[in-house]
Design goal:
The structure is a homotetramer.
Chain A (H helix, E strand, L loop, with lengths): L11 E5 L12 H13 L4 E4 L11 H12 L6 E5 L5 H13 L4 E4 L7 H16 L5 E5 L1 H4 L5 H10 L3 E6 L5 H10 L9 E4 L6 H6 L4 E4 L4 H12 L3 H18 L5 H11 L17 H20 L5 H4 L1
Chain lengths: ~325, ~325, ~325, ~325
């Protein structure tokens, strides 16, 4: 539980955890436990809670804290990052303090919609850092497809130079490969820190991003063991082998990145793999038709066949 | 305090209340009292709390309830509508029940961004009505400039036909005049209810809307007495006189409808009129420069002169 | 016809001209003449053609040039600015050259949707200026409500410093008053040019903008004589008197700024004032209902009464 | 050249053709020829010109027609669909007539941004169909990610029932699989026509879409032979084999669907494959860095290895 604070050295796979509900829509804390164990069994290096895909916006304040505490209490030395984005800075501050006291390693903050111009972004984060103080490590969540706020690399670099508590970029812009390279290039400037970069977008460009200097992934793909193994293979210099493995899962990676329906697909897989008791989302949510389920089944069978062909065993897909 | 539930007969001015904070950004409940008294002194017929302009999104859950209870406890027989829009339906349900128990007359619900197609809107509200049950009166907040969701009149009419608890349209589309007329025309169909329509957009088209069948206003203009007097004059058949009065205030109505800076202007006026102790907004918020304040002063002086010329006394602008 | 090129000294009212069509939707060049004469009779100082409100996007390439030549041939020494925004830079270049050869004084360019970050805007305009060369005066059209591109004052200042051909800001951001003041303040820096600023948004904040340093208006209000007289009064030091006159027209200024329906209202007024033969817009366009027309008539009668009361004669409204 | 008009029976691969330019940005008609031949060599069944990815918006009116005529003159009996979307209906009508006279098989129309409500969409297309007359076959381009206009299946069904000239759905919504199934289900209603559905989105969900009833693809993937072979395999009942082939190309399909940079990648591949003389886009356009090119090369090498492993020969990737 004393996992230490998040630093620029963070790497590996921080899984974005789904939030399980019962068929009635109640928060299912027992499934939080089994899902946490499932993720641990997949070898994830850390957790990200209350992210955009975690249905955090449908939880009450109390439920949010309950989930955070429940997971932190179960993951031992793994670090937990908690999303604390909110329209009001005071709420960002309160939630951040609350989760840090509960044992979080750091917090993640996305820009609110409507920030204007490079200075608008810089000034907002300057306010956030001042409100949180120097002791809370912060992840910049760069997801303009959802926030509408484009982060120029120069602004990120100014923030890194001026605020030591900014230790990670959650990289989720699209297109984003050039930005990743640009940030890594700029870090060669004497005196600038090298921060951690974990990538999102469901992992759709994961091998390319690792080749360009990403330190791992922060996403919610329903076969997290793939994310972990690909990371391990890259870390041990086997980039091509890593990408071979990734490509086997790519049809499902791509299937899950579909907007609106993606979470329903992920929860269905987690349900089928025994990690949660119900694939239910809280209303308003998406759900799968019989056709959607048959299609998913077929894709999983194809995955298992290809894993078997590659000598990796169908267990990975189906367990 | 037993103001009864909101019905289709609601009319007059439901002021959208600002939320006062101290210079430190703390919720200022004493100013909630003085502001409430100020609104009552202006003759408003009702209140709308936790609206988009009330900085509701910057309050904690507890603070929200505190504000609602504080106002309800002070307004006697005036009805109070509370905004309960939330990304999760369960949160809509909980907050709605909580405020109804506290004495609210009804709740207001805006569509969440991303609803697709006519049926998407209908189905969302059908879910809301089912979640809230038949006993909580609901206002449809039609503000596509903020939500991105256009409400076709035909969809509103289907909802009115199918759900008795839908009693009011908060009319804030732009352009919106034709839609207002269309809704009123469609109510002539045998068997369809005539619902209450209160208009927003800072009152920018208030006289035109009253002529087309609106029942009053639900907005936050900082001289609420104008909204009330214009309503009274219309109600007593003096439409031209009403519009004459409106036109005197129009320069300031128009000044306040500026996006982003509008709330800072309103709070500055409320502060100058002694209704609140500080014009402070919670961060992130807008604020006024010295130039902005001098400009506002000049506009207020012009308003007072024109009121004096019209024999209405500067007291109305400055008290 | 030798009106000279647009410079930083441009001032007064550049009317954004409507484009008249027959009831069949054909371009009506005779009405282009009568409308041009009408604008000249109102005392406008210049013209802006092929703007967003001119239905330029519904003209063929040939029709566009026909309109430009027709107007330029009729306005004597008045300067004509032509909108040349286009998705492709090559098309911007071609159209700009064509209209400059035809006698235009300068061109107006809005940023294309999707520019990212401060540098994205700077670089786009740098490309434009390079494509057009140093001899074509350019107006930056700052209308983020339509383009989605916010212009930070610092970016505008960099462009002014680096490109002499940038001589005017068409100011149409909202809120925009603070930006106007900021640009004027920054021009006090030694060596920086003072550019012309003409304001849009239908003139809704015209007196405030003139007080803050605007040089006039570039908009399409259907009573252009008001725009001209207000400008003249300001120019002769009678700011309060100017604003008194503006306020008389404000109900109609506000009526015309309604999105979607605004152009239909303007064309209806121009039609009633005898300036064009038909209020028709090319499809897809908006049109007025009988209720809309009766409402407009009532507002015009109110305007005439107030002008008469102010000793200014109903002629101004009705001629 | 007498390819006949587009009908509901259209199927196969209609390639969305890139538009080649020289390094100076001039239209390169010789490369139009070689690119057309390249596509024909890949076995495509038809062509779509002046689509969103064809940089049509950067062509002059004359250049557009030149491209259309050049391609039609070269493709023999293959059908050519031409994009004619425009802000003005009159321009839609003129361009449609011009290309039909030049030998096009049909036209494609996307909804303009800003259409409101189900009826807004229906009424716009009703206007289009009336303007074009009954003899021009029309494709509905359903691409809400670009247009902002969601097409409810019910609206599409009404249009199919009421307008015989609507013969094809260009299916590019996301998520879109459920919509495709819904449209196919609804066609079982007695009396309703079954229309052709070709899918876009770079082919990212091509096998799933074929399984759900799509008739082929209309997209611009730079290895069109894959699109054709997958179609052929499906058509001959070998769905699993088709998907096996698709999966080999999926890493590159996914790479090309990156926004903003996708066209630069496609033109680079077409350039490397000898189909065009320069990968240049007209300004403003995207381009590739050295890192981007090295990455692409690596991905192509991986593709060739996998094709070789599958006994399909590296020729397919590199020829």
């Amino acid at each position: 539980m004393s996992s230490g604070k998040l630093t620029e050295q963070a790497k590996g796979v921080f899984i974005i955890a789904a939030t399980p509900f019962t068929d009635d829509g109640a928060l299912d804390l027992q499934s939080v436990d089994t899902l946490t164990d499932f993720y641990l069994g997949c070898g994830v290096h850390g957790f990200t809670l209350l992210g955009m895909m975690g249905e955090a916006h449908k939880l009450t304040g109390e439920e949010s804290i309950d989930v955070v505490k429940r997971v932190i209490g179960r993951v031992g030395s793994r670090q937990v990052i908690v999303g604390v984005s909110h329209a009001g800075l005071e709420n960002v501050r309160r939630l951040a303090h609350e989760v840090m006291i509960a044992g979080a390693a750091g917090v993640m903050v996305a820009p609110p919609p409507g920030l204007k111009g490079d200075d608008g972004i810089y000034n907002y984060y300057a306010q956030v850092f001042q409100a949180l103080g120097p002791d809370i490590p912060v992840v910049y969540q760069d997801y303009p497809q959802a926030t509408g706020v484009y982060l120029p690399p120069t602004v990120f670099e100014r923030l890194v130079d001026d605020f030591k508590q900014l230790v990670m970029l959650k990289h989720e812009d699209a297109p984003g490969l050039a930005k990743l390279t640009r940030v890594r290039e700029s870090e060669k400037k004497p005196g600038r820190r090298r921060v951690s970069i974990l990538v999102g977008n469901g992992g759709l460009y994961y091998p390319q991003e690792l080749r360009r200097g990403a330190d791992g992934a922060m996403t919610g793909f329903a076969w997290p063991e793939m994310l972990v193994k690909v990371y391990d293979l890259f870390a041990s210099g086997k980039a091509e082998e890593a990408e071979d493995l990734f490509d086997i899962y790519l049809p499902l990676v791509r299937h899950e990145v579909q907007p609106a329906i993606g979470l329903a697909l992920r929860k269905e897989v987690l349900f089928r793999r025994g990690a949660i008791k119900s694939p239910k989302q809280r209303a308003p949510g998406s759900s799968l038709t019989a056709t959607d389920k048959a299609e998913l089944e077929n894709m999983i069978e194809r995955l298992e066949r290809r894993l078997a062909d590659a000598g990796r065993g169908s267990k990975m897909a189906a367990e």
